Amino acid sequence: xAGIAExxxxxxxxxxxxxxxxxxxxxxxxxxxxxxxxxxxHAAAAYGVERSVEKFTCRFGVNxxxxxxxxxxxxxxxxxxxxxxxxxxxxxxxxxxxxxLFMPQMSSEPGRPHPLITAFVKAASELxxxxxxxxxxx
Length: 138
Known about the structure:
five-stranded antiparallel sheet, alpha+beta, Rossmann fold, 28% strand, 138 residues
């Protein structure tokens, strides 16, 4: 992972030497938190706004000590909390390769899917070469 030979996750291998995913200082389980969306990203195009309140269920996240080694080039941060901690990341070159610490499906409602779910379906449809889209995709 990102040239880190012994990269691991604290949840899986707590004693590993290079924990790039670690327990958050404060669990976000059951929390709602504002996410600041980075301009010029796929996430920004999907949301169309600079901030969104999201529902979290996680206890682990990016170890900020590895941030500079993990992000840059193709993998980039696309959303942060108010303090600038990573909450969303994406590939700059892939039509839809995104990871979030929150769960977009928890904010979806019938007839009003979360913007990232809509963006995923749109990217998949375009990738499959399908021109006809569901009316709710816009």
